[in-house]
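Please produce the structure of this protein holding iron/sulfur cluster.
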Amino acid sequence: MPNGLAGTTLRINLSTGEIRRLPTDEALYRRWHGGRGITAKIIYDEVPRDADPLGPENLFIVNAGIMSGCYIPAGSKVEFGAVSPLTNGPGDSNMGGHFGPALKFAGYDMIIFEGVSAKPVYLFVDNEVVELRDASGYWGMKSLDCEKRLKEDLGEDFEIVTIGPAGENGVLFSCITHDFGRQAGRTGQGAVMGSKRLKAITVRGNKSLHVKDLESLRKQVTEIILRTQKHPNMVPWQKYGTAFFIRWSNDNAVIPAYNFQTTFYEDIDKIDGDQLVEKCLITHKACFGCWMNCGKFTKAVIPGKPEVHLEGPEYETGSLCGANLGMKDINHVAYINWLLDNLGMDSMSGGGVIAFAMECFERGLINPSDLEGHTLKWGSVDDVEHFLEMVAHRRGIGDWFAGGTKRAAAKIGRGSEKFAMQVKGQEMSGYDGRWAPGMLLSYMTADIGAHHNRSWTITVDMAEGREKVEDRAKIVVYLQHIRPLFDTWCICRLFWGELDITPEEIVESLNHITGWGVDVDEVLRTSEMIWNLNRCHYIERNRQNGRAFDYPPARAWEDKIPSGPGKGKGLSLLQIDQMLDEYYAARGWDKNGNPTRELLEDLGLGPAASNLEELGFLGKPSPGGIPPVRGEKYKPKAF
Ligand code: SF4
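Below is the modeled complex.
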């Protein structure tokens, strides 16, 4: 059995029902490292550039990475990849929980789905038994309800991922749900699953994985366990999870409030981490192999509504469905989190879409006659509940918002594009970048659309000057290389990044598992290769210069922050262009944001250069050649 891998890849044609078992391609893993690296490579190679992301030619890939399920902390992740219907570019999203390790314990590293099933199905995996089963009885069920029913029908020991009605109905920001609250939320992977009429994947496995040097791995992991259990960050993480940052973000004027109109929320006391722990917490929850237990299993209690149970809200949902919607009760934030989870929508994009619709309502761009007689006011949980049903089932103008804020703004017009808070079609995460320029640049340039996790620069912005736009590029590029590696290896960044474990230690673990003998510079270079392949893929699919896709909505430069500690702060379009120019130079791209042949060949991506050249979008070589330092020499302490 190959080190760190289960040994078998499943290739399933949903149109014909054919299930093929293939030996896992070890050379592919050695070059692309698994997770988002391999999904990026396969969809680049196999999905035609004009394929409809919701059509039969798109692939849907499940990859459990090289390190998940192995004898390491927080080896809990699984990655999903497909061309994104939300961004029309390469898409990926991951989740923790137990599904990824379970897939490998059943004997499978990856599942590649192709085609479209004629009827709803789910994939049943029980070690050697792999079957497509009729899912007619589950189709139409909400995500959390469906997971519960499948566990009742198959057994508690099955690990299950499901989609909800939103995914079935092609809502473009649909998520995949697991473990009653773990979500692969970004880039609409749930919509791709729904388009293939794949309702769920259920897995049970009890095999072992082989690692190259178990004794050295055991020694290293024991040392990490003993060291990290005393780390001061462990206490707040275990108590609050990421909800700890709600108050911090408000204090530091980066929280989005009222659809990113301002960065200070006057009712933060009603929705912060203390409120979550005091009013909603039932118990703490952790993923496979983790004792940081950042997951908070909670209840939402609202008079006149059923008590509901969920995991969350963590920081992103708490900010985007809390301050950003003007909510004044943590139970209301938790309830909206539950609605989105159960309907099967990404709670980050979901919060952004609701907030955008609320601002449209406030400005009179939509009105009760568009909303089946309802209103959509800041702070109203009842309004949100009705609106989300319209979106999930694409009723009336719910159909516009089902495409996300960018598409909805294109329908509504009348200046609404200015406050549709997205880049490349994907809604922004829960940080406002007007007084954190590096963060804004991160959103602008993230390869899957506005997402914080590719590069989170806020503490660096704070340390180096929050009005400074110079030199942001090298920080962003470095972080864009190191942070996505966690999604490549399928381990949790929160554990490995927040407890001061060094990149060298992580690479040492990787070597103990695989025997590859790589170093930090080599893995950063692999990450750079993945980043550039995704950039080429995005340009090839959308057939415009890369720069055309890298701008935030005009609110980012036209509006100064109107209240709170950040009052009066903001950026100009000139500064945004300056950051982009520096970023392209730092990456070795041309002024149009297109990679050059020289760079792509240096990264082993010569065929991608030829593809760009054929389409007329190959970057022009810069007089200075490829920059010798592409972010890798800038190594802040934080990941
Ligand atoms: Fe899961 Fe949180 Fe642990 Fe990461 S830190 S593995 S998200 S419990």
